[in-house]
Input
Amino acid sequence: MGYKYGVWLVYNTLKMPMRHIGHFTITCYMEKEEAKKLYSELIHKFGKYHDICVESKKPIYFEQNMYEDDDNNIYSWGYNGDVTQQDEDIKTTSWLEIEEITRKYNCNFSHRIHTSIDYSKDRKSLHALEMLHNKVVTCSIELVDITSDNPSEWSIISDDIE
Output
């Protein structure tokens, strides 16, 4: 089942105990070729790297089936985020600008900028962690294979583009 293919903002500096790739979802539930096109368009228009402020002082429990085509019945917890600019070499991009581009693709867009730290079919097994400070992470736009039901098997496939 999983979430098919998509485009993420990937980070590796949150330092959380995660069994999957740290990411903010841009889109999911895409066919592979469509996801490749969207990935290329976003990179061309906005650049590869973006800063996201992680609201890590306020963990959130997310309900099942957050996306229009989602029937995985998976709960998660994580944090909301905001597009920000910490480095003058990194472009500031509006989430609305990204959403506008995704409208011409058959996909589920993530209207809420968020990162999920842990997933489970059992809501009671999730335990959110509050951090002392919000964090800013630099993310790279990546093409991803999220076809597996197991988040630890999700993978970045940006380098596989011919």
